[in-house]
Design brief:
With 235 residues, the chain is mainly alpha-helical. It contains ten helices and four strands, in the order H-H-H-E-E-H-E-E-H-H-H-H-H-H. A hairpin with a 4-residue loop joins strand 3 and strand 4. It binds zinc ion.
Length: 235
């Protein structure tokens, strides 16, 4: 998971969403009616999916696991908990079907004061709540929110853990290679490597490396060339 910047919707889409929300409120709609309204709003869903795809990491990757293709619009606060939030733009995130249908589903854990215990990548920096062990690919929680997020989204599932560890190896190699090409004045070659680096799945691994590039152990963990390359990345 990496921080995601939510884009503004155009006026037409905003008005469509507001009209749908107003209707649900006027009808005091429950979960079933809100779900039916969402399912039947094909044009709206298509427009939202397009916006979310543009915001997603890499090549339309899931905003939670960063690995699977983002195919579903997830209601961060589930329709079952808040039917009136069905058409709320700030409640929509792009997820893969596994994260959406097998892991998160209708879960929305809160603490005793009612604050949500899930990281919303459009509001929080996930890496303030969990820390990646690069060599193993395992996330460790830094906060209660981080612990709950790892559990609810299944961020410790084996395919993700192994995938992150392998992505770390790839990132180190590609960063070093990028530095060599840049030093040799091969701008197009360097650009190609950089683009591949930014579009690969598990964007969270590169993001975590950028965040920790100035940490004391970084030259040993990442390699000096990779650290030099990481310093040139603006995120
Ligand atoms: Zn996912």
């Amino acid at each position: 998971m990496i921080p995601i910047e939510r884009v503004e919707l155009d006026g037409v889409m905003k008005r469509r969403l507001e009209a749908k929300s107003a209707l649900l409120r006027a009808r005091r709609a429950g979960t079933a009616e809100a779900r039916q309204s969402w399912r039947s709003a094909r044009t709206i869903r298509r427009g939202l999916a397009e916006k979310l795809t543009g915001m997603a990491p890499g090549l339309s990757r899931c905003m939670y696991c960063g690995d699977g293709e983002g195919t579903d619009i997830d209601h961060f606060r589930p329709i079952a908990s808040d039917p009136f939030g069905t058409f709320l733009w700030t409640n929509h995130l792009l997820a893969c079907s596994h994260c959406n249908s097998n892991m998160k589903r209708d879960k929305y854990p809160c603490d005793a004061s009612g604050s949500c215990l899930l990281v919303d990548p459009c509001r929080d920096d996930p890496h303030e709540h969990m820390e990646l062990n690069f060599a193993t690919g395992i996330y460790f929680p830094l906060t209660a929110k981080g612990a709950s997020t790892i559990e609810v989204f299944g961020l410790g599932r084996p395919v993700l853990v192994v995938g992150r560890a392998k992505a770390f190896v790839r990132c180190k190699a590609m960063l070093s290679h990028w530095l060599v090409l840049t030093g040799a004045g091969d701008d197009s070659g360097a650009e190609e490597v950089y683009e591949s680096l930014r579009l690969q799945p598990f964007a969270d691994v590169l993001y975590a490396m950028v965040r920790r590039r100035d940490a004391p152990g970084a030259p040993v963990a990442f390699g000096r060339e990779a650290v030099a390359a990481l310093r040139a990345i603006r995120w």
